[in-house]
Amino acid sequence: MPLQWFLKYRPKSLNEVENEDEAKKELTEWIESWLKGNPSYKAVLLYGPPGVGKTTLAEALARDYKLELFEMNASDSRNLNDIRSMAERASVTGTLFGIKGKLILLDEVDGLNARADAGAIDAIIELINKTKYPIILTANDPWDPSLRPLRNAAKMIELKRLTKYPLKRILKKICEAEKIVCEDEALDFIIDQSEGDARYAINMLQGVAEGYGRVTIDMAKNLVRKKDRELDPFEALRSVFWAKYYWQAKSAVTDTQIDYELLLRWLDENIPLQYTDMEDVWRAYDALSRASIFLNRAKLVGWDLLSYTFDLMGPGVAFASFEKKKPTYKAKWVKYQFPQYIQQLAKTKETRDALDSLLRKIGVIIHASKDKTLNDFLPLFVIYYKKFHDKLDKELELTEKEKDVIKMLSSLYEGITEQPKEEERKETTERKRSTYYRRKKS
After folding, report:
1. C-alpha of 270 from chain center
2. Helices (DSSP H) in 258-348: which residue ranges?
3. How many helices (H) and strands (E) does the chain have?
């Protein structure tokens, strides 16, 4: 079986990598800081859509700096022990053949599932903290909330989709090397269909060329199909806010695999950044709130109502701006932000887990559900705990985190139930009376 062209013509050096000058510069500075012994980050996270050359860039870096490459696919090793045993061996043992250093590549870390692959992300963080060698992680979509620890532990470097001219240079070089006659129009068509994915474009070129010995525009139109791809959160937002037609905005919210509620959070966070006119902001939030209502109704009544959610959070948000009706309208470029709500959930995860654990322990004793324990019994338990904490600590086997939650709740309940002093009550009453008489006179 002939070697696939995207492997055969994969760049061997960073200089051969097209269209990623900024990423190459950041990556070079990072690896040189490692070689000097003072890296600011022990790992980098290369991220970008499929086919932009994340793995290729890592391999080219290893060749340029004569580093032994230890490569493993993180999503194929799905538990803490697998990742720890394989990667730790690479991180602490010496190199082969007298090579001066080693580069560890963990591919597709976004393929890890927070539940199914429990402990894997913790193992990677542990590996980063202990490693004696530089580590490169790769991901198509690094914005999943479960990957937040990796985003914090590594230097993030974005790889962008290949634009038309760099991709055309790559395809032309392959045609010349393979002595294939290829029409310029055919190359343009393949590039348009590839959506910036170099691997897809090269595979399509090889498929037509090996079948017919040449590539014409007619052959390309008959054989090459548009690449199906999913939009990442930033692409989805840009496609919504920049949409000029109804169908474009709706496609933007349906062509992404982002959870519907998470996409609502992304839009919620970035509407005030994209729209500066307060009436536009109001209309966008009005559409978004209605989208949220229909999403909840769809869950309760039937998924047929989901189309209304798409209509409101896509076109509804996109055309909240009346500026789009003007012929001179130009979309404003905005640097979008990750939802703070998700960040806050990540920061408070340990506290929330401790509260859930505490509620379960109390619920077992009083034979009540978690919700009933939280709403009806927890305030009484906190008051009771002040007097009998030694007994309750032993009986419920409370952890330090659970005790911290009780202390936090105790201070919270005290602030809510604390009665105002007599002087404060009198002052408040007098203020209300004077306000009442002023309004009556006016």
Report:
1. 15
2. 260-274, 278-300, 306-311, 317-318, 340-347
3. 22, 7
Q: Can you tell me the distance from the alpha carbon of 265 to that of 143, in angstroms, rounded to the nearest whole number?
A: 13
DSSP state of 2: P
Strand-strand pairing, 67-73 and 155-158: unpaired
Query: d(Cα 386, Cα 380) in Å, to the nearest integer?
Result: 10
Cβ(135)–Cβ(101) below 8 Å: no
Give the Cα separation of 260 and 262 in Å (integer): 5
d(CA 297, CA 227): 34
Report the C-alpha gap between 53 and 188 in whole angstroms: 20
Q: What is the dihedral of CA 9, 12, 16, 18, to 10 degrees?
A: 70
Token pair in block for residue 81: 């022990």
Say what percent of the chain tops pLDDT 70.
83
Q: Where are the alpha helices (DSSP H) in 140-245?
A: 148-153, 164-178, 184-194, 198-212, 217-223, 233-241
Six-digit token string for 304: 């047929």
As a whole-number percent, the residues of the chain with pLDDT over 90 amount to 12
Give the pLDDT of residue 99: 42
**CB-neighbour burial class of residue 19 (10 A; exposed 0-12, middle 13-18, buried 19+):** buried
Quote the distance between the C-alpha of residue 241 and its chain's center. 19
For residue 397, pLDDT beyond 50: yes
3-class DSSP string for 162-190: CCHHHHHHHHHHHHHHHCCEECHHHHHHH
Q: Residues 223-275: pLDDT tens digits?
A: 887 766 666 788 788 888 888 788 788 888 877 767 788 889 899 999 999 99
pLDDT over threshold 70, residue 1: no
Residue 351: which H helix or E strand, with range?
Answer: helix 349-366
Phi-psi region of 66 (alpha: psi -120 to 50; beta: other; left: phi over 0): left
Cα angle, residue 248 at apex, residues 244 and 252 outer, rounded to 5°: 125
Instruction: Find tokens 């809510």 and name the residue.
Output: 416
Convert the pLDDT of each residue in 199-209 to its tens digit.
888 888 888 88
Closest C-alpha to 358, from 347, 373, 372:
373
DSSP 143: T
pLDDT in the model for residue 96: 45
Name the β-bridge partners of 139. Answer: 47
pLDDT digits (tens, 9 = 90+) for 92-146: 555 443 445 888 888 888 777 655 555 778 888 888 888 888 999 998 888 777 7
- CB atoms near residue 384 (< 10 Å): 13
Annotated binding-site residue numbers for ATP: 48-55
Binding residues, as ranges, are 48-55
